[in-house]
Amino acid sequence: MDVQQTEAPVHGLDNFLAAIHARHVSNQDGALANYIPQLAAVDPDKFGIAIATIGGRLFTVGDVEVPFTIQSVSKAFIYCLALELAGRTDVLNRVGVEPSGDAFNAIVFDPYTNRPFNPMVNAGAITVTGIIRDAAGAGAFDLILDRLSEAAGRRLNVDEAVYRSESETGHRNRAIGHLLRNAGVLEGPVDEVLDLYFRQCAILVTASDLARMGATLAHIGENPVTGRQVFYLDAVRDTLAVMFTCGMYDDSGHWAFDVGVPAKSGVGGGICGIVNRQLGIGTFSPRLDPKGNSVRGVAAFRDLGDELGLHAFECSNIGSTFVRSMID
Length: 328
Hints:
Blueprint: E1 3-4, H1 13-24, E2 48-53, E3 58-62, E4 68-69, H2 74-86, H3 88-94, H4 122-136, H5 140-152, H6 160-169, H7 171-182, H8 190-201, E5 204-205, H9 207-218, H10 233-246, H11 252-258, E6 263-265, E7 270-275, E8 279-284, H12 295-308, H13 321-327
Antiparallel strand pairs: 1-3, 2-3, 2-8, 4-5, 6-7, 7-8
Helix pairs in contact: 2-3, 2-4, 2-10, 4-7, 4-8, 5-9, 6-8, 7-8
């Protein structure tokens, strides 16, 4: 089992990652996302963990270079892009920021606003994709792919077979799209917005990509390897806040309580987590729990959080050096 890094290893981190991987690799709980035919055909035993630092280091163990489709992990980055393109006020007028407590594909809106609860459930994510289409027109997908590629630090591609599979079977998302159009939340043609959404979810990434993309958000929108400013600072702050409260489907409360870092999962088996100003973490394991989250990915994050003290409210976390310098 190889652990790779771009520079000399932080003392013990390579062995630590290897131990976490070994602890959970035999766990075969959960099931593949069989409602998308192409996802039901993936190898269920793949498992990788990657950590990227804001200093540009990458530490990995397991199947970190195996490509899989980003699925709902894309929602966080698309939301960040929409905040930049349309502005906070317009986005908030169309999508809320409240946890819903419902499944990610629930056909339900906030009863007080008649808008999607948040951008991390399908209804909100489809709306956010519509916002980007409104702003970028025919070039919307190229813009999305360019930004996600810049965050990953390499050119990403689309799994055309998964895209077609989702497009052919995504009847529930089409129903959500038409309800959004009826509610006045979607302004463009529903079929075009949904096609963009399906294609966005079919972008191929690896666990290493997710770690680097997380590190880009952790590094206030700047890719720590390329030095390119990928996302605006204010958009990153708002995105991390929504990821913290809504990013893990209807298990987000337990995640905030147990792990305590902003994160987003996807039914392709990926999880992307962010430790602000420190790390991006990416995991990949396709077997999902009943909430739609990777079983081994969640377990790995819990261990990382507990043993490295990553929880946002960890008592050993001494906080901002700037604030401490002002107090002292």
